[in-house]
Amino acid sequence: MEQLGGEATRDQVIRTIGADHVALREQVLAELRRRIIDGDYRQGERLTETRLADDFGVSRNPVREALRVVEAEGFVQILPRRGAVVATLDETAVRDLFAVREQLETLAAGLAAERATAEGIASLRRLIDDASKATEAEDFDRVAELNSAFHRAVIEVSENRWLHSISSAMYYHVHWVFRVGAAQRAPHSSEEHVRLVDAIEARDAAAATTAARLHVEAAAKAAFGQRPTA
Q1: Which phi and psi angles does 40 have, rounded to 5°?
Q2: Contact predicate 37/172, CB 8 Å
Q3: Which GO-annotated molecular functions does the record name (predicted)?
Q4: What DSSP designation does 79 have?
Q5: What are phi and psi of 149, to 5 degrees?
Q6: What residue ranges of the chain are covered by domains with CATH 1.10.10.10?
Q7: Each residue of 176-222: pLDDT tens digit?
């Protein structure tokens, strides 16, 4: 009995260590991604493993793992003789992002109008209200975060798991682009979100699709107007 108890204890310790490692890696990844999106690490800025480990107060191993993920996501580039460098939001990347957004978000809006529950619509209204409060408080980091949360919520309301799976990584970049000019874009974006939710609540799929398309077009126009020159 004692031997069995000892083995159980060892297994529990091993599982706990593994869980802690994963949690630390995910924390470093989330913080690295946040600092890039919020502009703490600027486009073109070099990010060494040593510097990031010092910034986060961790060893280099979770930093190395996080850098691999953000490189795959397109936030970081690995350049010869320079190492990891924060990617630049160039014109091609931004145009490609909005081209995909238009297809996904118009589809999601139409489905949401057909499938939305009262609870789902209420959640969308709450996100709009929260974003309005954050705009009034000039907390534009929070506004950008809520903007992406709103669009993810529309996809949740659409109840299409493929849209959810395909778009999950994209909205980190939507957040990044929106944050660049959130102060100017926020009031207009909120009004467009209201029109979209109104159409969804009215069960008008055509109007919801149109509202989503016009919203993406307006966001794209704003992004190109305020995007820093590479």
Answers
A1: -65, -40
A2: yes
A3: DNA binding; DNA-binding transcription factor activity
A4: E
A5: -60, -40
A6: 20-86
A7: 999 888 888 999 999 999 999 999 999 999 999 999 999 999 999 99
Intervals of CATH 1.20.120.530 along the chain: 91-225
Q: Which amino acid is at 43?
A: Q
Decide if 155 contacts 167 (C-beta within 8 A).
yes
CB atoms within 10 A of CB 181: 18
Indicate the DSSP class of residue 89: -
pLDDT of res. 168 = 84
**Of 40, 89, 95, 39, the residue nearest 227 (C-alpha):** 89
Q: What angle do CA 168, 17, 20 make, to 5 degrees?
A: 35
Q: Would you state the structure tokens that stand for residue 177, as one six-digit string?
A: 């682009």
* Per-residue tokens: 29: 């990844």
Q: What is the CATH number of domain 91-225?
A: 1.20.120.530
- Answer yes or no: pTM beyond 0.90: no
Contact present, 122 and 145 (Cβ < 8 Å): no
- Contact status, residue 207 vs residue 194, Cβ threshold 8 Å: no
The CATH number of domain 20-86, selected from 1.20.272.10, 1.10.10.10, 1.10.287.3610, 3.40.50.150? 1.10.10.10
Q: Shortest CA distance to 37 belongs to which of 218, 229, 179, 142?
A: 179
Cα distance between residue 110 and residue 104, in whole Å: 10
226 in helix, strand or coil? helix
The one-letter code for the residue type at 112 is: A
